[in-house]
Amino acid sequence: MASSKVAVVTGGNKGIGFEIVKGLCKKFDGVVYLTARDISRGVGAVSKLQELGLKPKFHQLDITDQKSLNNFKKYLQENYGGLDVLVNNAAIAYKVDATEPFAEQAKNTIAVNYFSLLATCHTLFPLLRPHARVVNLSSSYGHLSRIPGQKLRDKLSSSSLTEEQLSGLMNAFVKSVEEGNHQAEGWPNSCYQVSKVGVSALTFIQQRAFNSDPRQDIVVNAVHPGYVQTDMSSNKGDLTPEQGADAAIYLALLPANIEAPRGAYIWWDRRIVDWVNKPDDLSL
Ligand code: NAP
pTM of the entire structure? Predict the structure, then answer.
């Protein structure tokens, strides 16, 4: 058991995450963990895959709960001694007609989509083995062009941006929403967009760190899965969840020592997309 390769998907009980688990069960040479914050939803999802003849394993994981993250880390460490694939899929999005105050939406969205993804990485990255693959679910809303302010765009796209500085910018957005001046400061009027721009920018910082990590060939990419029919999109969207999982599965299974994509922003059709200068053929 200790020598098995291990893949982990967060938010695997439904939507794109469920389909990523399904695809990895078919293609990954190792053990695949479907994780979910709610045990009964997670176990139910595992049963559905078992009915298809697949054999995912289950572990509870709420990415907003550091205790849950620590428990899972300990479990992986004790049972496998490492981690080979991490797909950071779990996220939230308020509906356009949500009645919660915008400041509350901003605080929660940045907390889950950016800071909890970051906490997941801080907790689990020490387990990554050489040649590990990390996939961060971003969005077309996570393209830099979503940020109206040029000064903010310059900071976010700087090749010397640190994780601490990026987290500072995410906190600054939440504060400016509380103060009612986020648009004057150059932010968009969408907390989901800011959270996903944060995920994209974080991905590039993480790859720079992996490039000088003593563990060889660890690769992280950000992916826009497409506009996908899930609960998050109220089942609108152009792609089925299975189609939306394709690019993330591809990135999770990138072969050893591949030159590209590494630290890139990937479109649902597997294309590498320029994150700073929007290509003309990209409708955003
Ligand atoms: P979804 O159907 O709403 O599923 C989201 C998943 O994340 C659910 O399993 C949910 O669990 C889980 N989750 C939420 N908070 C969590 C937490 N604190 N801990 C652990 N799991 C948590 O969304 P989706 O459309 O599949 O989206 C998957 C990813 O793709 C997200 O990162 C999303 O932002 C991104 N994306 C989606 C689209 C689209 O068109 N659908 C487009 C661009 C990007 P529960 O069931 O317990 O709530």
Answer: 0.98
